[in-house]
């Protein structure tokens, strides 16, 4: 009953937005000339997925996509603020748009996403970037048509930022970047408040979608040709805890695994503190769940992990890895690491190197700590000197790269099933795709293979990708 009522609200709101879409489409058609949009997603897969939805709305409004920003009539940036350099990039791009707008006054500039959820950023854009016409945040993406219509009608700047989520309004009818793989949101927001991280402040509290809604979306995607599903959440392992009828993430995986026609199931991101034995067994038992896990450890020092509020120790992380490898021996594991968190000493950093060596990651996303205003770590004592951070960062890569090379070398001679994603930009006769364990594989082939699952014998290793041959 509650689900039905929720669906009704959500459907009504989407129907309202559909009316604005039609109105804008009629306006665009009346102009008798092609109108273009430029759509840029920054940051994580959630933003990329949100941008697929923005793109769909724009296409339905009669705009065509362009990769040439200068050709566009409508430019939208979906921003990220997880690290300072992501924000710097946005201000740089806004400066560039200001310049374009001088010769093209009808250009409409919209900006949305995580950065907009910060009051200081909003003020700065309001005051110093007056050429931005439409501003909205992470909780009201579905309102783009209404906001654009208001701007077109009034010529005024339109700002609509929500401070918290309303109903979950999930339009599942959108254009996908890839025909054969799709992302599906399962949990929004984050409750973990790692002390360095801005995400909980800009994405709100954790809330899970109903299991049946998720399964129905997946069934629809499969009917539309999708073979591989990536379940998205800042911490997928806490999925379902706050639903009226609680469900665990492991249960969700087991049920999705039963859906006919699905070939591969991936998910990200897992938080080590919430990765249960039940989940490890579900990953082991479900043949469609890939033998790959992204499990950020951030730091190898228990002292730093405590200051980060991560909720596990170095030893607990290593024990967890051992358990996972025991149950799923051919699994590959990737991670995120931060260097230079406040108070990190050389000894702490050595602990990080130790974890990197002990686990043997197939990929690692490495970051220099970036101070985020409003987070507890921003005001912690003993902020680490920039030069020291750079030096540690480079030493970390020096340790990680040979490990990544070795992990990939162990795959030479093996046969992996690869779903082909595209043709190489350098060579039309080379295609690339991903294996179940998420390795990038290049081999001879042409574009007719895109979307197909092909068994490939691995014959070479180039650290960040493998070379294969069809068998
Ligand atoms: N929810 C995911 C990750 C979200 S952000 C998780 O918990 O794993 C992706 C990565 O960005 C994080 O894992 C972390 O390594 C990095 N990150 C987040 N805030 C950062 C900051 N202030 N400085 C540097 N790296 C940061
Ligand atoms: Fe940020 Fe931590 Fe939440 Fe990940 S789990 S989004 S790092 S607060
Ligand atoms: Fe960035 Fe927002 Fe994702 S801050 S990492 S785009 S949730």
How would you concisely characterize the structure shown here?
With 471 residues, this protein is α/β, with parallel strands linked by helices. The chain has 13 helices and 19 strands. It folds into 4 domains: 17-160, Rossmann fold (3-Layer(aba) Sandwich), CATH 3.40.50; 176-290, 2-Layer Sandwich (Transcription Regulator spoIIAA); 294-410, Transcription Regulator spoIIAA (2-Layer Sandwich), CATH 3.30.750; 415-470, Beta Barrel (OB fold (Dihydrolipoamide Acetyltransferase, E2P)), CATH 2.40.50.
Describe the structure.
With 471 residues, the chain is an alpha/beta fold. The chain has 4 domains: 144 residues, Rossmann fold (3-Layer(aba) Sandwich), CATH 3.40.50; 115 residues, Transcription Regulator spoIIAA, CATH 3.30.750; 117 residues, 2-Layer Sandwich (Transcription Regulator spoIIAA); 56 residues, OB fold (Dihydrolipoamide Acetyltransferase, E2P) (Beta Barrel). 38% of the residues lie in helices and 21% in strands. It has 13 helices and 19 strands. It has a 6-stranded parallel sheet, sandwiched between helices. Helix 4 links the parallel strand 4 and strand 5. Helix 12 packs parallel to helix 13. The termini are far apart. The protein binds S-adenosyl-L-homocysteine, iron/sulfur cluster and FE3-S4 cluster. The site of S-adenosyl-L-homocysteine (SAH) has 17 residues, from strand 13.
């Amino acid at each position: 009953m509650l689900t039905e009522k929720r669906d009704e609200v959500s459907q009504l709101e989407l129907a309202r937005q559909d009316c604005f879409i039609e109105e804008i489409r009629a306006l665009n058609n009346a102009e008798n000339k092609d109108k273009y949009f430029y759509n840029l997603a920054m940051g994580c897969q959630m933003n990329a997925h949100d941008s697929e939805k923005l793109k769909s709305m724009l296409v339905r409004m009669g705009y065509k996509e362009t990769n040439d920003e200068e050709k566009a009539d409508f430019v939208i940036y979906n921003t990220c603020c997880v690290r300072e350099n992501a924000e710097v990039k946005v201000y740089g791009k806004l400066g560039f748009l200001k310049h374009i707008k001088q010769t093209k006054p009808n250009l409409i500039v919209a900006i949305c996403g995580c950065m907009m959820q910060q009051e200081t950023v909003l003020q700065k854009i309001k005051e110093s970037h007056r050429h931005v016409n439409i501003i909205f945040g992470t909780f009201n993406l579905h309102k783009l048509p209404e906001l654009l219509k208001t701007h077109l009608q009034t010529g005024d700047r339109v700002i609509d930022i929500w401070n918290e989520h309303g109903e979950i309004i999930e339009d599942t009818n959108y254009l996908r970047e890839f025909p054969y793989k799709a992302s599906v949101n399962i949990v929004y927001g984050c409750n973990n408040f790692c002390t360095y991280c801005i995400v909980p402040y800009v994405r709100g509290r954790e809330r899970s979608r109903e299991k049946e809604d998720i399964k129905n979306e997946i069934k629809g995607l499969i009917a539309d040709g999708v073979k591989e599903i990536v379940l998205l959440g800042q911490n997928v392992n806490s999925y379902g805890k706050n639903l009226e009828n609680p469900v665990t993430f492991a249960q969700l995986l087991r049920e999705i695994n039963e859906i006919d026609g699905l070939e591969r199931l991936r998910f990200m991101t897992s938080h080590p503190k919430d990765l249960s034995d039940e989940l490890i067994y579900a990953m082991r038992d479900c043949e469609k769940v890939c033998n790959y896990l992204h499990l950020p450890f951030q730091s190898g020092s228990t002292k730093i992990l405590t200051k980060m509020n991560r909720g596990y120790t170095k030893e607990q992380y290593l024990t967890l890895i051992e358990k996972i490898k025991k149950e799923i021996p051919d699994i590959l594991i990737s991670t995120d690491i931060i260097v230079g968190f406040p108070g990190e000493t050389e000894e702490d950093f050595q602990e990080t190197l130790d974890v990197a060596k002990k686990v043997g990651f197939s990929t690692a996303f490495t970051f220099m700590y970036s101070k985020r205003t409003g987070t507890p770590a921003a005001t912690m004592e003993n902020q680490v000197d920039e030069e020291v951070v750079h030096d540690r960062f480079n030493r970390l890569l020096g340790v990680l790269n040979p490990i990544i090379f070795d992990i990939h070398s162990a795959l030479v001679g093996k046969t992996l099933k690869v779903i082909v994603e595209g043709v190489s930009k350098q060579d039309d006769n080379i295609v690339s795709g991903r294996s179940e364990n998420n390795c990038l594989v290049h081999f001879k082939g042409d574009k007719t293979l895109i979307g197909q699952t092909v068994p490939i014998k691995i014959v070479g290793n180039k650290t960040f990708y493998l070379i294969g041959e069809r068998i």
